[in-house]
Amino acid sequence: MSAGALTITALAEGGQVTRVDIASSRPRVAGVLIGRPAEEAPALAGRLHALCGAAHTAAAESAVAAALGHPQPSPPARAILAERIGESLRSLATSFLPQEPRTLRVLRDLLAWLRSTGDAEAITAAASALGLGERPSENCWLDHIARRLHALPPINLQAPDTLGATDDAAILSALREDGASFCAQPALPGRRPEAGAFARRWRQTELSQGQIAARFKARRADLRADLALLAANRPDALGLRSVSPAPREGFACIETARGPLYHWMRASPQNVVADYAILAPTEWNFHPRGPFAAALAGAAADREMLHAVAALFDPCVGFEITMREAAHA
């Protein structure tokens, strides 16, 4: 099934961004689960979402168990943490590809080891070589990205509106009432929620150095933290929580590389999926009135900067950026 893409159009006037329009062609796949036996949902959810399949499987398992009144399963912490690290690195490499052949080899090997949840010492050594050690080399890949980002025009300075367990009730209510439409463009009254590394780690950055630098520093801090959790094999670090809000209903959330992932389901008396919704973190960040669009309001109409900021907001699908003069839009 096609992953879809984001089409981002920045309207500019006088050299500044005046508006950002965002359209998504991402398909909603939760409907595929309806009518199937509930216990088939986790494996199918994992196959339908190639990038974060382990997280989707775990969230679905937890939601199904809650709906059917079964004991909560133990999620594969190591596989999910490795997936989080691998996805964050893969998405960085997609937008900021290393130029040195040696760095490319190290990155390729690290991603392969993470997929196989292989040798912990090799993973640590490779991550350090890329710039995730205690004292990274000035010539490492991630420092090269940091210098490149430092030279870009600034964007709006803003602390993120983070999502947490206290938002679960409102999100559950919206999933029940609006289903697919809420999953496509999630919104909470009076809020502009953001998901991902910056939402988790922004307090470990220095906003005074600029929003772009802070966002990248948060990504590095998030990667370091997940590498430490991977080494310790910490299942409690997955942010997994679930509840049965009503008979034959299950709701679960798990933290992915890009932020909280929500699964909600309702089962029939025959334990068949009667309704299912999946809310991915990308939809919060790239909501037409969300934090990505707000960050660029009034910023310089600089194509490289626009691409870098989109990459740091980290969508789970490809994106294309077009810049137009507002007068001709």
Summarize the SSE layout with pairings.
Layout (H helix, E strand, L loop, with lengths): L4 E9 L2 E9 L16 H8 L4 H16 L8 H19 L5 H15 L4 H13 L8 H10 L10 E2 L5 H11 L1 H5 L8 E2 L2 H5 L9 H22 L8 E3 L5 E8 L2 E9 L5 E7 L2 H4 L5 H6 L6 H11 L4 E8 L4
Helix pairs in contact: 1-2, 3-4, 3-10, 4-5, 5-10, 6-10, 10-13
Describe the structure in your own words.
By secondary structure, the chain is an alpha/beta fold. The protein has one domain: Cytochrome-c3 Hydrogenase, chain B. Helix content is about 45%, strand content about 15%. The chain has 13 helices and 9 strands. A 4-stranded antiparallel beta sheet has the order 5-6-7-8, with helices on both faces. The chain has a 3-stranded mixed beta sheet with strand order 2-1-9. Strands 3-4 form a two-stranded parallel sheet. A hairpin with a 5-residue loop joins strand 7 and strand 8. The chain is globular, with a radius of gyration of 20 Å.
Q: Summed up, what is this model?
A:
The two termini are 33 Å apart. The mean pLDDT is 93.
